[in-house]
Specification:
Rossmann fold, single chain, about 425 residues, eight-stranded mixed β-sheet, alpha/beta, about 15% strand, 15 helices
Length: about 425
Amino acid sequence: METVGVIGLGYIGLPTAAILASSDVSVVGVDVSQETVDAVNRGAVPFVEPDLGAYVAGAVSHGKLRATMTPEPADAFIIAVPTPFQGDHEPDLSYIESAARAIAPVLRGGELVILESTSPPGATQQMAEWILEVRTDLSIDGADGKPAIHVAHCPERVLPGRVMIELVTNDRIVGGLTREAAQRAKHLYEIFCRGSILLTDAVTAEMAKLVENSFRDVNIAFANELSLIADGLGIDVWELIELANHHPRVNILQPGPGVGGHCIAVDPWFIVDALPDKARLIRTAREVNDGKPAWVLDKVREAVAGRTDLTIAALGLAFKPDIDDLRESPARRIVADLADEFPQASIAVVEPHIRELPQELANRRNVELVSLVDAAAKADVVVLLVDHTAFKKADPVALGLADKAVVDTRGVWR
């Protein structure tokens, strides 16, 4: 496989393209954003991910990576586009459909097509069917003498902030619509992956990723529900968890203001959508975690004690520490709710990993992006939403927080 097309140059697609290109594979990245395409062709990265910049710059300078807005012929295609939900938490596969229909005209037969996007059960099969709707002269198994394309699913399973490490070291699950497709996909990932590559069918591979993130979501929901109970009983939940975790078979996670990111906050809903009458615990966990921002808002209401003409400092917008990824972030939702709840207040947002507010916050007259020092100085109430290293290293006394109301959702300054 000398040439690989990567469709979608976001948080997963661009690192995958860069690491393949760094392994001496010619990679053509495709994205719908001209800004992203231009950035990659300059050897730049349009988001924050440690070490990715060096990989992209090196691959571009050596002529192994370039970006375009239109798919080109290749030996293999990796589709890494968003899979959000819509309506009543129903999977939105429109980005996958668009990608499938975009690559269909350049297929010749014999190509490997891998869906990396986290997907509901059956999405890989559906992607193949969209391709075959455009290319009726092709097949997925060589039926009727038609040239075959080899379709597989290989879900990403990396942690933002460690993507370039975990792409290489983590085990991968590869599920093919055919056994040959799975084997071909394995050969591709063996170019750069040092972890085990485990073969199965496409639907099982799709479910494996959803199950991994649902397991995390259920365990986080336990911690978040525990924080509500502890608050009602006047107990420090972080001390409670620390004590309980001294049991050799107990490992309770840490509570927070909710759950964000494109994976854990979304993937469990794909299981619920597939079999809603069976996925009762998974649904409940999602509801617990999705309800946590409302509890944070209640704590802020208590802290402001009826005042409206005040300044509220909101520390953090990302969905997890030390990254710039705001997707499905509960902090982002909480800041928007604060702006609605307290229209006469000033909302001073501190997010050290972004240069400008997301559009829905930038358009609000009472929300501004400021430094930590400035926010602390003017704030009447401080709401810590993300445990960024910059916040953990800050001295609350030096910031003058001793005489201010503090709502610490991460237990940083307890």
